[in-house]
Every structure is written in structure tokens, then in C-alpha cells.
Description:
single chain; mainly alpha; 240 residues; 15 helices; 77% helix
Amino acid sequence: MYYYLIIALQAYCIYHIFKNRNSYYWIFAILFLPLIGCIIYFITQVYNKRDVEKVQENIVSIINPTKKIKDLEHKLKFSETYQNRVNLADAYLGIKDYNNAIPHYLEALNDSDLSDLYVAKQLMICYFHIEDFDKVILYAEKIKDRQEFQKSKLQFLYGLALEKKGNLDEAETNLKAIDIRYSFYNERLVLAKFLIERGKEEEAKEILEAIYMESQNMTKQNKKIFRNTILEVEKLKNSI
């Protein structure tokens, strides 16, 4: 077992050398000093300082998310660029502080030299979570003709907002856009519930049956991720 592990480590290091066009003298070190050579190469060439800093930054962000916010606020004060403002807004969105994220996204939209697709998308998400469905519809209609909007979660949010405002036919059209095989499992479950509420049980059952059949071919990881969704699908399917 130990021998095969060393072989695998050597193979990876040599692959990394050719892929990144590193100095070929590393190959001799890896072949003639298998374990030591691989460890030295891995530490100095693969797991480099940049990787360490990135890992540390991610850990700090998880443990103390407000630190990231403060750092980005200082960065924005130093340089009020579009990207710095969006980064700060994204950080607020990341901790579900939608009310602080929104003003920064709105300010970013004033930069007419840059595409507003990304910011409009983020605003849709923020407004949906604070249940300002009129604003969700407003920004959706600014970008709904874009290819990135079609058959996406954005279109699904648009459909949900339309439902909340009572535009049921239009809502159904947009919600059905995400009825795509082997994807959007949670959203398709919501769509099925929507159709049931509209008295369209047969259409809903077809969607539920499709999701259930697809779940039989899921990877173990996806079965774990969508476990509750699949259980609810099966229960709802059997109740119709």
C-alpha cells in the first residue's frame, strides 16, 4: 500500500512539472529521492505561499465574517472602484445582510461603463429575500432577454415573484423554464407544488415522477445533497 502511494505521489508531481513547465531537475529529485523529493516539491511548488494565504483568508472569513466586511470597507474607502464596491456588496450578501448589500449594488449600477447583468442578478436575490417582489420583477425585466437569464435560477425567482404578485399565468411560464432533466431538483419540486395549487395534478405528477426516476441514477454525493428533496418528492408523488 505504501509503495503504491509513493508511485501515485510521484506520478502527480511529474504531471504537475510538465503541466506548469517547472524545471526538469525536479524529476530527478522525485525519482531518486521518492518520498523526500515529492514532499519538497509539493511544499515548494504545489502548496505554495499563495495557497496558504488563500486558505488562511477563507478560515478567517468563516470564523469572523465581519473582519472580511471591515477589510473590504477600508479597501473601498481607499479606492472607490466598481469592483471594490461589488466585492463589499457580495460580502454583505454572503452573510445575508441584504439591506446593507442593496445600496452598494445600486451605487455600482451607476457605473455605465460596465455590464449591469451581474449586479441586477444580485439585486434580484437581495430583494427576493427581503420580499420586495416588485423590485425583483423590475430588475428581472431589465435582463430577461439576456441569454444568461433564460432557463436559470434568476428566471425561477422571477416566476416566484410574479406568483406573489398574482400574475399566475406569467409565473407558470417562467417557472416551467427550469423544468430541465437532471437539474434544478429543488426548483422543480416547487414548480410541482405550484401546479398542484393550480389544479394541474397530472402535470405536477409527471415532474415528480421524472425527478424520482432521475434520483435513482444520482451519484452518492447528490443523493446526500438532495436527500430531503427526494423524500418530499416521493411523498408528494404518492399523495396525488
